[in-house]
Q: What sequence folds into this?
């Protein structure tokens, strides 16, 4: 099957993925001969113990890293075949990413943080009303001109969710999005993320170590030592 044929059925298709990195002059295989497929729509949780390769796998899906072997097709694009410029365009248009550490620009207003991805995509009209709409949706319509350090952790993560949606990408990738939040705030943020993914008809891929959040997902991929042990809910 070619990329287009696979992409009609699957949002993400991976075949015999291998990825490694060097630490203390030793080669560490983080993802070891991994194959899986994720259909369009719904929420998929990637779970497993610390060091199992969850975040590495999400980075491969998001084009933040390239595998040393194997293929990964995301939204009809084989990421191993893309050059640096093409990968940058893919990251901007095809996926919205939410990180544990929020990754907001401290000297930019909340509105400018959400607007930022639009600077790199000429296919979108640069409309400030879309920023206001998304911030209102995440409950921060009153905070457009505030700065990140004037917001709580939960509010900053809601800004990050709005930013992930601003270019209207088909996929949202979230890497431990509640890792820096207390339990109550984390539950609120996660409920919002699940709700928005379904309301906007996004395919959400969630890395989490919380069993409660994984059980709320439509399907789960279990990783251990860089291997897929089980796929549940497919």
A:
């Amino acid at each position: 099957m070619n990329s287009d044929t696979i992409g009609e059925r699957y949002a993400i298709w991976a075949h015999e993925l291998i990825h490694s990195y060097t630490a203390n002059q030793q080669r560490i295989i983080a993802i070891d001969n991994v194959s899986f497929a994720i259909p369009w729509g719904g929420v998929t949780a990637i779970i497993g113990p610390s060091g199992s390769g969850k975040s590495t796998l999400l980075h491969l899906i998001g084009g933040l890293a390239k595998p040393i072997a194997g293929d990964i097709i995301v939204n009809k694009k084989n990421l191993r075949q893309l050059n640096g410029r093409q990968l940058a365009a893919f990251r901007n248009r095809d996926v919205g990413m939410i990180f544990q550490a929020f990754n907001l620009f401290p000297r930019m207003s909340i509105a400018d943080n959400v607007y930022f991805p639009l600077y790199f995509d000429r296919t979108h009209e640069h409309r400030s009303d879309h920023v206001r709409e998304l911030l209102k949706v995440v409950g921060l319509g009153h905070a457009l001109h505030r700065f990140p350090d004037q917001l709580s952790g939960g509010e900053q993560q809601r800004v990050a969710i709005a930013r992930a949606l601003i270019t209207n990408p088909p996929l949202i990738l979230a890497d431990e999005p509640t890792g820096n939040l207390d339990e109550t705030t984390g539950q609120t943020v996660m409920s919002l993320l699940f709700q928005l993914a379904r309301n906007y008809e996004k395919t959400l891929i969630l890395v989490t170590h919380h069993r409660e959040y994984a059980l709320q997902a439509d399907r789960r991929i279990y990783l251990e030592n860089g291997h897929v042990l089980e796929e549940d809910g497919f």
Q: What stands out?
A: The CA atoms of residues 77 and 221 lie 22 Å apart. The radius of gyration is 17 Å. The mean pLDDT is 93. The first strand starts at residue 10 and ends at 23.
